[in-house]
Amino acid sequence: MARAERAIDRRRQGQAARRRCRGCRLVRGVRRPSGSLDGRVRRDLRRGRRGQIRLRRRSRAAGLGGGGRCAGPCRPGRARLCLDRLARSHSLARKGPLMTLSPDWKAPPFPPAKVLDGRYCRLEPIDPDRHLDDIWAANQGQDHIWEWMPALPPKDRAGYRDLLVMMAEKPGIVPFAVIDKADGKAKGHLWLMEIRPEHGVFEVGYITYSPSLQRTKVATEAIYLCGAYGFSLGYRRYEWKCNDLNEPSKRAALRFGFQYEGLFRQHMVVKGKNRDTAWFSILDSEWPVRAQAFERWLAPENFDAQGRQKLSLTAFNQPSALAGPVAVRRASLADIPAILALKNAAYTPNESIIGVPSLPRIADYAQVVAEHEVWLAESEGGLDAALVLDIEPGDFTVWSVAVSPAAQGRKLGAALMGFADERARALGYASVHLYTNAKLTQRIGWYERLGYAVTHHEDLADRRLAHMRKEFDKPAQ
Asked: Higher pLDDT residue, 246 or 102?
């Protein structure tokens, strides 16, 4: 089995194992229980309080505040607000960890052309003889899907064959036909392109989806499979680029979890017109979190009997938010050193009370960041607090909340716990669960003041845990 297939298979096996047992994981050796800112934003910031109110409203509309749900597709004229991720999001990005190159990184191989198999779709290397009939049948007469492509729409079957032959023979790309596994038909194509192994960079582009493929699980899974393949080979950066006037493509990039990086003005001339190019990317340190979002969205339990999504990919991919007045962002693998330092400072004092190592202090945080939602609150002094949410189909658990001793007294813990409530509601949960060592009576009392009640105790080999739950007045709709 090839490396990418093994990586995807391991993720699926891990999901199944987590559904079977919420026990021995995360803690090794310890069993534990289950571009530039939009001008309007700049003006609003200069106008003080009224500007803050406007920014907060726009943040909610873009899915950056409160419970974090996006209000819906961006309206014309306001898409730039989403793309720039607003002043708060840019500030958070600047506070993130410095990107460095691992000393043992080696340039990956050029991606071999091979079949990438998913749950709903299969990506097959373009074969004009095998794929032409299906793709021509799906795209014939759909000239609008070529509006933003460098090529003109093929006028006939022979013209489309010439296009597919060009793809199959073009050096420097890996073109795929997108197969819908529901009926086995090819309904579109895309490329891995701009492949620069010496820098660890690859791009998904030339995406041409038939109307029957657009806005489907197949279309989304194809982007996931491309990312999983490239990162499994050792690539560091996954790119998405599009014409700045192509609003649907920019919204799709954000939905998939790509981060907007800026605008290349007068970048290209396409079909006799100027093209300003919007750049987006996902880094290797960010991919485990993005992969988690893809997998949660693609899971069968996220769809009803009619195939309608229960929760959006945008909700799963929310990169930043407000926890009350506190700005928070999702962690990546690059944050692990700071998280470990925070956990050691926050949890070591508890160990004189409980007499054993604190589970959150000795966890495998590469696994925690990859499988859970980890939210960070920062200031000029560094990492102030961290919230870890263990989100399963049947339960929403606050796995840990930690505040740096230097940040005590600022009510960060309460702000993060309130954000956990909002996040649970936004994702459709009716309650929040947590557990802590039964000897930490002051901590248990604090949770009780926040609305939690002890439901039961669990005796492990070396400690006793108190399980607590907070029920919401009304289940989320």
From this structure: 246
pLDDT score at 78: 42
Using CA atoms, how far apart are residues 146 and 207, in angstroms rounded to an integer? 10
Separation between Cα atoms, residue 364 and residue 27, nearest integer Å: 6
Claim to verify: residue 231 and residue 119 sit in the same structural domain = yes
User: 210 and 90: one domain?
Assistant: no
What's the pTM value of the predicted model, to 2 decimals? 0.75
Q: Does 30 reside within a domain?
A: no
Q: How many domains does the chain have?
A: 2
Q: How high is the pLDDT of residue 3?
A: 53
Give the contacts of 235 (CB within 8 A, at least 6 positions apart): 108, 197, 200, 201, 202, 284
Q: Is the pLDDT of residue 273 over 90?
A: yes
Same domain, 72 and 219: no
> How far is it, in rounded angstroms, from Cα 75 to Cα 48?
25
Residues 42 and 55: beta-carbon distance below 8 Å: no
State the Cα–Cα distance between residues 83 and 301, nearest whole angstrom.
Answer: 30
Whether residue 375 is contained in a domain is answered as no
CA–CA distance, 378 with 86 (Å, rounded to integer)? 17
Residues 6+ apart with CB under 8 A from 352: none
Statement to judge: residues 65 and 137 lie in one domain: no
* Per-residue tokens: 405: 């001793």
* Torsion angle defined by CA atoms of residues 405, 406, 408 and 414, in that order, rounded to the nearest 10 degrees: -90
Q: Where are the alpha helices (DSSP H) in 215-285?
A: 217-233, 247-256
pLDDT tens digits for range 275-315: 999 999 999 999 999 999 999 999 999 999 999 999 999 99
Q: What is the pLDDT of residue 185?
A: 97
Task: Beginning with the edge strand found earlier in the chain, give each strand of the sheet holding 201-209 in spatial order.
Answer: 116-117, 121-125, 174-180, 185-196, 201-209, 237-243, 273-283, 259-270
Domain shared by 86 and 112, yes or no: no
Q: Is a pLDDT exceeding 80 seen at residue 95?
A: no
Mean pLDDT over 320-342 rounds to 94
Do 266 and 232 sit in the same domain of this protein?
Answer: yes
Q: Report how far residue 192's alpha carbon sits from residue 82's, in angstroms, rounded to the nearest whole number.
A: 26
